[in-house]
What does this fold into?
Amino acid sequence: MKAFFAREQLLHDQSVEFNRGELTAPYESGKRAEMLFSALEAAFPGAARDAAEFPVSHLLDIHDADYIGFLQSAFGEWIAEGRTGDAFPMVWPVHDMRGEKIPNTIVGKISHYSFEISTAITKHSWISARRSAETALSGAQELSRGANMAFSLCRPPGHHAGRGYFGGYCYLNNAGIAAQYLRNEGALRIAILDVDYHHGNGTQQIFYDRDDVFYVSVHADPDTDFPYFLGYADETGAGKGEGFNLNIPLSRGAAWPSYGEALSHALNRIGDYAPDALIVSLGVDTSAGDPLSGFLLTRDDFARMGAAIAALQRQTLFVFEGGYAINDVGGNVVSVLNGFLGAA
Ligand code: OKP
Ligand code: ZN
It folds into this structure.
């Protein structure tokens, strides 16, 4: 197994996050990626590889050009307009307001290109997000060269980032960018299995009207959990993509009996689709004790998850997403990978 990583991903360093009416330390820290990297090095000596660099065209395959331009220039514009600290969005064009407008000054622009308050653009967000996408691309390249599996230690995560917006700690849709890379390399059908606790609204949006990328997600019911406004079971795809989006929301408190059942339903549907490759958006915030989440998976359950995924017998790229119990993240990810490798 190869595990791809890029040190520049650690540079993104948001000062605060707004939670429960207070400013708190951000849940999504560089520390969690560093600790995960150490756990991988210990469990799989010699597996670590530096992510390669890729042309920006791979980002433009998935994201709008104006959004990519905005991500690159936003922090500079924030400073040029005399603001300090991190660039936070603060006003959104909801309901019947003019959501298509792109104001010319930075606060209006940030609001246009985002959807929630916990995620800011910091001095180094662009470089970290770009290297995170390149970490996913490196894993995809490994598959296109014939590897059976790879792990991409992406940070910041990606599955909440849409074609033209950031949020949920995500700026670039790493799994989506990897999926499109494999399509460009000749794969006909890609399945994305998203096992993060939260629904991957961005990945769903990007592929909603396509039948060549099947998005399947098991996640907390958006009625009670972030991102609240997407991820319900009746979202099944549109146009050509009808039937190629599958959401399986579970109630808070779900443990392996109900989770494992949902996962096997998801995997059966993916098996029927017969994808050329599988991308797993691997969030381990489904772990009992995760500070953002309400599922109760254990270390052993994560090994069961890995084994169930391996039973599909597809080339598989694991792309890291969430997981905020930083002392458990490494063990849980290693458990998924060992479960996969033991059963593959
Ligand atoms: C990212 B990923 C909690 C605020 C939560 C955003 C959650 C993003 C989760 N008070 N804000 O899917 O793990
Ligand atoms: Zn999550």
In short: The mean pLDDT is 98. The pocket of OKP (ligand 1) is lined by residues 19, 118, 157, 160, 168-169, 196, 198, 226, 283, 285, 292, 321-322 (CB under 6 Å). The domain at 3-343 is CATH 3.40.800.20 (Arginase; Chain A).
